[in-house]
Amino acid sequence: MTRNIDLDSHDSSDKNYSRNSQKILNKFNVSLGYEVKIVTKKAEFFGIILPRYETFSDKYIVLKLKSGYNIGIEIENIIEIISKNVDQLSKKPIAKSDPRDNATANDDNNSRNLFDKRNGSKLLPKILLISTGGTIASKIDYRTGGVTSLLSASELYSAFPELSDYGYIYPEFLFNEYSENMNPNHWSALADRISFAIRNEHYDGIIVSHGTDTMHYTSSALSFALQNVPIPVVLVGSQRSSDRPSSDAFSNLVGAIRFIKDTKHSGIFVCMHHNTSDEVIACHLGTRVRKNHTSKRDAFKSLDAMPFALIENSDITYNKLLHNGMERANISKNFTSKTAFSDKVFLLKFYPGFSSSFLENFLQMDYKVIILEGTGLGHVSKDCFPILEKLIEAGIFVFMTSQCIFGTVRMTVYDTGRDLLALGVIPLSNMSSETAVVKAMWALGNNTGAEDFVRIMKTDCSSEISNMLPLV
Amino acid sequence: MTRNIDLDSHDSSDKNYSRNSQKILNKFNVSLGYEVKIVTKKAEFFGIILPRYETFSDKYIVLKLKSGYNIGIEIENIIEIISKNVDQLSKKPIAKSDPRDNATANDDNNSRNLFDKRNGSKLLPKILLISTGGTIASKIDYRTGGVTSLLSASELYSAFPELSDYGYIYPEFLFNEYSENMNPNHWSALADRISFAIRNEHYDGIIVSHGTDTMHYTSSALSFALQNVPIPVVLVGSQRSSDRPSSDAFSNLVGAIRFIKDTKHSGIFVCMHHNTSDEVIACHLGTRVRKNHTSKRDAFKSLDAMPFALIENSDITYNKLLHNGMERANISKNFTSKTAFSDKVFLLKFYPGFSSSFLENFLQMDYKVIILEGTGLGHVSKDCFPILEKLIEAGIFVFMTSQCIFGTVRMTVYDTGRDLLALGVIPLSNMSSETAVVKAMWALGNNTGAEDFVRIMKTDCSSEISNMLPLV
């Protein structure tokens, strides 16, 4: 079970421009990321040179215009390319400096919570933007074109200079990983970095740019690892790469910044499109969100509740039912970080025809926990009962969630559920199976004793159990 | 991998009435299912004696009123119980006889398709109602009270005498199984029974009452096993037991009957509530439906499309985009039944932290197919690649679906997908993972050669692949 975090794939060559297009870039001494004026026979264009789409002809240079749209400019029409502002193209983060950075650091213990100090002021929030990879961090969809060179948070920021209107952003590159490759080691590294920032640096909020495939797993992981965070920590992804006219990256990012600027609440959140328009961004609780569509911009949905907040321009509407105990001031002193995760947890989805004898494999393996994703209210077929009993007797914890996704596991309603309860299978209420896997990894990873472990799994830590919430 | 179909659990004792309540039933020589008049000190009640709710006090007799509502009548208030009509309480099906039954059978080859013969007539449809168990077939929620005695389709029909206003119903008991216990053997038995009815009996439609937990798996199984059915075959379930005032059983059943009566289309369908009211019943395609909520009445949702039809009182609104080639007359001659299913198929849901070494187990086991439920557009972590390659080299077929539920697997967009394609992993478009498991079991079970098998899996058979459908 060896896993690696690959930090070496950050390559800065312009390899996706080749032959003709590279020649003209060389001729005018410009490169990817340069802010330029391109003079053609018919018009002048101002913008930033982007990587070429893999599917684009080599006869074009792709320019990101101020409007956010990209155009391809035919090379043979180009008369001149003039580099406009070399300073802005340095490889260093290009955040505006925050006037508050000149103040004495640590002047009091609450200095990190600047929000409370600037009521009524016009100060922009100071935000750490941690890049982990994924579509949002690609100017072009980097997985189609090998564009691994422009993936850092700083470059994301340079692709959206408008972000500086909303906040002081301190971009930072943590790793560059497709989110399907994110594993508990990445969660630990990310949680440790955030924990350090919370304890030692003074941000009003933290944004994590993340691939969408497993963003809901990571948001769960951070929710358990970092409890009572004193500031909002917001994961943001994108279903369209940031250079595409249809990209949702910018609006999701701006939604996250607006939320950090205006909210009195802290916690781990996910900000993504609420519907197919760019107008409303939903802010979901980190443990109660799921990617429910492969490609739509509003793929992420809160489970069994409306989102924590809806952000529409400068208006933020809160779901009042979800706000218990999440006021920043109340909890900043109780911040805890337990960032270890065990990998001895298996997620098993039941289906008709599932062979109960398969379960016997677990007697020979090293798993400590099985999360059963059962049918309906939390069922598996009765032929599984004897082997489940054996597993439980052998000390393996077996928990039940539902493959329905929405709704609550209730194992007291039917015989099947009651039989499973009698065997020692433990229902997990309306925790999603994805969140349940992460919670079990976390609870095991932090060396909890058996009794404590079961108690922790059954008890709401981070809104992962929300039976009291109204259904929508 | 032994599985049994248990046909012996059909017990007709009145064990859920005990002590006081049983005494009074004995005294007046009546029993469960009797249609009675109960005279109390204050009023008279007409209805059918239902099993006692497990949680009810023993001081009550539960009576199902004509209105569909149930009341508990306190024993100490009961003066007399008069059995009203013993004939209606026989153990035999109590369907009204259809005048058409007097016609010469098999007078021509199309006689089974009575629908086409009675355009403009007021004849009610002749429907086979096959009971397989589940909440819908319980007058009380039988899994809480051991009420296994009143589960047949005939008793369901007697609980809803109003059904006779909508059709000539021929109830039949096939088995009595919680749907989480349904397995491919049940699918075969059910498909065989329906196939026989289509070839030898003359129904306008068939309704299968089924537990909801795995109803979408069974509807997929029937869709593959029985292709080009000449009549509608409709699975109907209930999220509330049929004796509860809030039961959705009656409205779902009536919706199915109305659909059979009025539609020109044939196929395998699922009829369940469209929303939380009783007004609109959705008719879903059998391969494109999923139980998405543990308890809500509108738990079943069509995937990536609106339902095939919406039934609102006597109005049926069709989704015109789903009707290709499903007109009854066109396909009745092409009806095929291939009702075998293999159990050599494993459904594996990927999650972050999934240990790739787990996959090595499959080298020692007897599975021929793995359905990977990947993330997003169809991804698993890169550390799985080498072992997936080994499995594929060893002759195991590996297919990809998405845990997102909605949307389409597209493995050409990102590196990860393209790498998996190169290894030989086969994407299954927008087939749900539940349907994919069933299809693989069916395609394997009917002795398809390797090449044919992959072709069949990738080709739309029964609307399980619907990329052309508009998203909703």
From TrEMBL, chains A, B:
**The entry's keywords:** ATP-binding, Hydrolase, Ligase, Nucleotide-binding, Protein biosynthesis
Q: Which portions of the chain have biased composition (kind: Polar residues)? A: 103-113
Q: Please name the Gene3D superfamilies in this protein's record.
A: 2.30.30.520, 3.40.50.40, L-asparaginase, N-terminal domain
* All residue ranges annotated as the L-asparaginase N-terminal domain in the record: 126-320
User: What is this enzyme's EC?
Assistant: 6.3.5.-
Whether Coiled coil counts among this entry's keywords is no
Q: What Pfam families would the database entry show?
A: Asparaginase, Asparaginase_C, GatD_N
Q: Which reaction does it catalyse?
A: L-glutamyl-tRNA(Gln) + L-glutamine + ATP + H2O = L-glutaminyl-tRNA(Gln) + L-glutamate + ADP + phosphate + H(+)
Tell me the InterPro entries matching this sequence. AsnA_fam (IPR006033), Asp/glu_Ase-like_sf (IPR036152), Asparaginase/glutaminase-like (IPR006034), Asparaginase/glutaminase_AS1 (IPR020827), Asparaginase/glutaminase_AS2 (IPR027475), Asparaginase_C (IPR040919), GatD (IPR011878), GatD_N (IPR040918)
Write down the top EC class of this protein: ligase
What GO annotations for molecular function exist for this entry?
asparaginase activity; ATP binding; glutaminyl-tRNA synthase (glutamine-hydrolyzing) activity
Q: Which GO terms describe its biological process?
A: amino acid metabolic process; regulation of translational fidelity; translation
Q: Where is the Asparaginase/glutaminase C-terminal domain?
A: 344-457
Chain intervals for the UniProt region annotation (Disordered): 93-117
Q: What does this protein do?
A: Allows the formation of correctly charged Gln-tRNA(Gln) through the transamidation of misacylated Glu-tRNA(Gln) in organisms which lack glutaminyl-tRNA synthetase. The reaction takes place in the presence of glutamine and ATP through an activated gamma-phospho-Glu-tRNA(Gln). The GatDE system is specific for glutamate and does not act on aspartate.
| Subunit composition and interactions | Heterodimer of GatD and GatE.
Concerning its family, UniProt says: Belongs to the asparaginase 1 family. GatD subfamily.
Q: What is this protein called?
A: Glutamyl-tRNA(Gln) amidotransferase subunit D
